[in-house]
Amino acid sequence: MNRVCGVQKACRRRARERDVLVLPYSDQVICERDGWVCQLCRGPVDPRLPRTHRDGATIDHIVPISLGGADAPGNVQLAHMGCNASKGARFTADVVGVRSGVRVVAP
Ligand SMILES: [Zn+2]
Known about the structure:
This protein is mostly helical. 38% of the residues lie in helices and 9% in strands. It has helices at residues 5-18, 27-33, 81-100; strands at residues 57-61, 76-80.
């Protein structure tokens, strides 16, 4: 029934391990709240595409759980698989760089 639940379950487990805020939400509700529009590129997301497709629907954590972000509706948004993957690495590098004061991305 829930096509992105595999991602969510992995996130839940990470969230529990890291003791961050976890609030229940349904991927379907997040997708509908965001109007099936990718919150990273503002392009439409096709609900029929599999999650493994680069234009498929994924739940993106605005602040990654690995950096203490909550697994909660206020910290998640709908994103294309491809957008999520490319944004995730960039955002993480930026935040880690800011927090530690160390440049983590090579010039
Ligand atoms: Zn997108």
